[in-house]
Amino acid sequence: MAEKQTAGRDNLGDFAPKFAELNDDVLFGEVWSREDKMSAHDRSLITVASLMTQGVPQLEAHMKIAKQHGVTKDEMVELITHLAFYTGWPKAWSAFGLAKQIYTD
Q1: Of 48, 60, 42, 53, which is closest to residue 84 (Cα–Cα)?
Q2: pLDDT, tens digit, for every residue of 7-49?
């Protein structure tokens, strides 16, 4: 079962309480917990792919989550290599920098 998420409330609870609630309770509470429909492993691969194509800072956090969900170094390398041709070489280089750091810790 997915770990209880509190990042929304921790970071935005006082400033944007409804957004924090939706982040923690709906996105991570309801959607990510539907492991009978799709595993956390697969959701992590999809999420990392989406964030890599967008080039957003949340990529690092979700790569760490992916590792916790059992995504292997080889799977992450293959994902980034595959997406390099669709999302762009510079984004792949950036993603590899994060992955190398996360998977050698």
Answers
A1: 53
A2: 899 999 999 999 999 999 999 999 999 999 999 999 999 999 9
- The token duo for 20 is 């924090």
pLDDT of residue 2: 56
* Third-level CATH fold of 38-105: AhpD-like (1.20.1290)
CA–CA distance, 105 with 94 (Å, rounded to integer): 17
Where do the domains of the chain lie?
1-37, 38-105
Tracing tokens 């609870």 back to the chain, one arrives at 13
DSSP category for residue 71: -
Q: Are the CB atoms for 49 and 83 separated by under 8 Å?
A: yes
Burial class of residue 84 (count of CB atoms within 10 Å of its CB; 0-12, 13-18, 19+) = middle
Rounded distance, CA 100 to CA 73, Å?
9
